């Protein structure tokens, strides 16, 4: 399997992913025209010289190299919430206190806001259930941070991720069911389709701006505030290991949490390193057999994969890979490559100075992902 930028030939595969992912996955909607525009936007973003990030959108696909099928997607919005407001509810507490009566009571509230303005957003992570295999989910998640480590000038100091909230197998959200009864009488699928297509005017027109007191909600709606869809739990767990934290902001429609982390503090960004490529065959005694993500040093022609065939020489800042892998990544001798261990802690472990080393990582269970 290999990660690469999306191409026009991927349109039908993207449409299948958009259909499979269901309501709530607003970054990819089953609309061929909208998907075609997204592909063109991504292609222009990868090829554009960038000094300061703006409206670039980087959409990657995970390809099965044996069949050519699309296994999944992952993406980055360089600057979110700038051209179009990025709305959330701020989940907070309010204290009501009467000195005269001697009464005090604390309430949980949701207040509409657009707190995240001009942040980089990771998005569009989806691994198709038919392609569940070891390390595929980790590759989709971590390759974005490897790309950010290579090109930090293309991104902002803060990175966020909107996590998919709770909905059932029919795409019904308990949180939205309550909001719908009181404010916007539309199906959850219709609302997410509007948002995915960029039609957000109804938020200012119909969605409540003042505080919503959560104790007035029904139990089903209140229970899912800040919770994630079952298919999203592995993705959230990985982001938490990277350093992402929930600061109290949740989605307007399914109440899924938004998490954030400074770019410089993301574990995988800190662990990624450039090396000079040497081709050939590393002897078995020089390979640990543990996987590492390897990427070429390009934007428009970006390629990345997971391999256990690397021999890293830290003293010389070189890495040896088999000729076949170099061809898959479109690499030539002496080219710059980037490596990221699947477990950042492994990259910081002391190693004997007289040996060549392979960066190591732990495996990851094959499960579906949706962000």
UniProtKB/TrEMBL annotation:
The answer, when asked if Acyltransferase is one of the entry's keywords, is yes
One BP term from GO: L-arginine catabolic process
Keyword Acyltransferase assigned: yes
Q: InterPro entries, per this entry?
A: Acyl_CoA_acyltransferase (IPR016181), Arg_succinylTrfase_AstA/AruG (IPR007041)
Which UniProt keywords are given for this protein, alphabetically ordered?
Answer: Acyltransferase, Arginine metabolism, Transferase
Q: Where is this region: Disordered?
A: 344-371
The record ties this protein, via NCBIfam families, to: arg_catab_AOST (TIGR03243)
Q: What is the recorded name of this protein?
A: Arginine N-succinyltransferase
The record lists the organism as Marinobacter lutaoensis
Lineage in the entry?
Answer: Bacteria, Pseudomonadati, Pseudomonadota, Gammaproteobacteria, Pseudomonadales
């Amino acid at each position: 399997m290999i990660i690469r930028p999306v191409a026009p030939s991927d349109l039908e595969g993207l449409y299948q992913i958009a259909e499979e992912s269901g309501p709530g996955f607003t970054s990819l909607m089953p609309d061929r025209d909208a998907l075609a525009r997204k592909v063109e936007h991504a292609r222009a973003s990868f090829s554009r010289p960038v000094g300061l990030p703006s409206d670039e959108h980087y959409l990657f696909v995970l390809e099965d190299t044996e069949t050519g099928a699309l296994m999944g997607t992952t993406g980055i919005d360089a600057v979110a919430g700038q051209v179009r407001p990025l709305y959330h509810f701020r989940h907070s507490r309010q204290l009501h206190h009467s000195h005269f009566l001697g009464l005090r009571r604390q309430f949980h509230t949701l207040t509409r806001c657009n707190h995240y303005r001009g942040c980089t957003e990771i998005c569009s992570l989806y691994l198709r259930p038919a392609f569940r295999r070891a390390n595929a989910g980790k590759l989709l998640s971590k390759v974005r941070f490897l790309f950010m480590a290579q090109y930090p000038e293309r991104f902002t100091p803060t990175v966020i991720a909107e996590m998919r909230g709770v909905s059932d197998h029919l795409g019904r959200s308990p949180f939205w069911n309550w909001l719908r009864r009181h404010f916007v009488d539309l199906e959850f699928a219709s609302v997410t389709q509007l948002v995915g297509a960029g039609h957000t005017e109804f938020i200012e027109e119909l969605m409540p701006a003042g505080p919503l007191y959560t104790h007035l909600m029904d139990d089903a709606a209140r229970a899912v505030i800040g919770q994630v869809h079952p298919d999203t739990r592995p993705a959230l767990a990985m982001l938490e290991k990277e350093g992402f934290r929930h600061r109290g902001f949740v989605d307007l429609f399914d109440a899924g949490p938004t998490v954030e982390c400074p770019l410089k503090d993301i574990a995988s960004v800190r662990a990624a390193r450039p090396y000079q490529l040497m081709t050939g065959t590393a002897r078995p005694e020089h390979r640990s057999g543990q996987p590492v993500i390897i990427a070429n040093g390009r934007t428009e022609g970006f390629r990345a994969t997971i391999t256990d065939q690397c021999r890293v020489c830290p003293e010389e800042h070189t890495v040896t890979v088999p000729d076949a892998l170099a061809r898959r990544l479109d690499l030539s001798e002496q080219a710059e490559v980037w490596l990221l261990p699947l477990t950042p802690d492994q990259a910081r472990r002391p190693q004997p100075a007289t040996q060549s080393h392979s960066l190591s990582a732990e495996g990851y269970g094959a499960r579906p992902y949706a962000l």
